[in-house]
Amino acid sequence: MSVPRLWAKFQAQILAKVPDHRLQVILSIPVLGKLFAKRIRQQLGFSCCGSFGSGTAPISPSLLTWWQRLGVNIGEGWGMTELSGAATGNSPFQAAHLGTIGTPFDELELKLSAEGELMVRGEPVFKEYYNNPEATESSFEGDWFKTGDKAIKNADGSWRITGRVKEQFKTAKGKYVAPVPLESLVEANIYIEQSCVVGSGMPQPVALVVLNAQHGQSKAAVEKTLLATLDSVNAAVESHERLDRLIVVKSPWTIENGLLTPTMKLKRNEIEAATKILVEQSVSGKLIWEE
């Protein structure tokens, strides 16, 4: 079990030695491709692993698919301390559930509120917050615990988290935008290690991105892929969700600089504060590089 950022870092280490286009050609060759993938798994220490998992934050479906080509089937899970830990999982791994958090474990029921918030009830759900009756009362509707996550239930019974209720922001046009689905699309670009979509009070959202330091490509080549990513994202979303531009920031977001939580989730408010001047500067162009 690992967090999405470490899966992305493992990927970056591989691509630093074998460019992705060359890797995909090798993997497509019968017999040789399987032997090559096995060798990579051995070098990563995965030979003795019976299963692979990801949790604590959303992981890009494109990253899951990339690992699947190497024979590493990563099952995504979801849970909370209030639910006694893990609550759902794509385990045992099912390819049809790729990009979802799987199905709920025994003794847990899931449903959506009218606003699309994921709610849970069952034996593993905690009883109350210690010495905080107000927080306890606001966290329950009857015996249903309000998780604070927005979700979608798929036709096959699996679930997909689309973000936190409090992460949504309203643009200057009065439309609400959920950043997580957009970030998932942006991170389909293998050269992007981290992304954070912002845009509260702005005409259109923008995406802040941190590049993989080991990408090994020229700036011109990276710019070409970034602009292609911007076009593909905007072609896939509603008009009010379309990204006005991509902003490449110089330094990664880490636990040490206070921009990631200890579980490597984005500290959105802190990232927005740290990049406020960069985001609000009056510049033209669809791709901006922090100086």
From TrEMBL:
Domain AMP-dependent synthetase/ligase: 13-130
Name this polypeptide is given: Long-chain-fatty-acid--CoA ligase FadD15
GO molecular function: ATP binding; long-chain fatty acid-CoA ligase activity
A GO cellular-component term linked to this record: membrane
Superkingdom of this protein's organism: Bacteria
EC number: 6.2.1.3
InterPro entries: AMP-dep_synth/lig_dom, ANL_N_sf
Keywords: ATP-binding, Ligase, Nucleotide-binding
Methyltransferase is among the record's keywords: no
